[in-house]
Amino acid sequence: MISKVFSVTNKKGGTAKTTSALNLAAALHTAGKRVLMIDNDHQGNLTAASGLTPAEQKYTLANLLLAAIDCPEDIDLHLHRTVLTIKKGLDLIPSNRRLTDAAARLQVMQLSQYSSCGNAERYCEQVMDSLFASLKGNYDYIIIDCGLQHELLTINALAAASDYCIIPVQAHFLASEGIPNVLDMVHSVQTRFNPKLQIAGILLTMYQSRPQLCQSVRESVGEIYGENFHVFERPIEYSIKVAECPAAGQSIFEHAPKNAAAESYRSLAEEVLRLG
Which residue, 166, 271, 173, 184, is CA-closest to 221? Predict the structure, then answer.
């Protein structure tokens, strides 16, 4: 078994990034796939949305990254304590504010490698690579929720691990303006570190079928990016039930399985499954 790794990322907030990571993972799990979620955000939103308290987590992604920096040969010893089972076939590597410590260490590595004129033995952008050597054989899909801050953490997810990235975009004109920044980052990663990285697609979120504004944004995104990048077939419907999910610590499939947003995420999962 070789996992397909998807990073969910956008440099703008409020795009339903964490919600989409959680519900995509849940939809794939419902389809019978073994899935690992990775919370790559120091705010721990994916951890909280999975029903856990971030501050109470003793072992997190931070422990793994620090081990990968200082003693990569011991990664397997740390993994069994860090990977948590949410339900059979659905696991999580949690996160909390300690991830800022790991991000700081990556920045120190970055300063060191550039001061050595590019002769560093290990690049700070590829530290996560040692984690996935062990993880990829255990899951069908790995879904990484990337944060807004600490860009080196996002670049690590894209450079060291990801086969694909998904770009969630709120169905609002100002939100859609953030797409070029993400595309620039992805292109940089493809050029420097991970040529196999692909953009799985642009995912419209918080979509309302009736308001003309949402329909106009959908048409605009399709016209501007549709020739070069896939735009997922079904936007994620806006629903208060989706907003309630993180507080309930549940996916939309547990909280409101008949909601229109649940159908939207099922459609997303079907497209992801077709990618292989």
Answer: 173
Name the residue among 168, 165, 271, 172 with its Cα closest to residue 220: 172
- The H or E element containing residue 87 is strand 84-87
- For residue 91, what pLDDT is reported? 98
**Two tokens, residue 129:** 């690579």
- For the chain, the residue count is 276
pTM score of the predicted model: 0.92
Helix (H, G, I), strand (E, B) or coil at 85: strand
Nearest-5° Cα angle at 235, 229 to 236:
130
Nearest to 67 by CA among 48, 82, 55: 82
Parallel, antiparallel or unpaired: strands 84-87 and 4-8 = unpaired
**Biggest distance spanned by C-alpha atoms of the chain:** 57
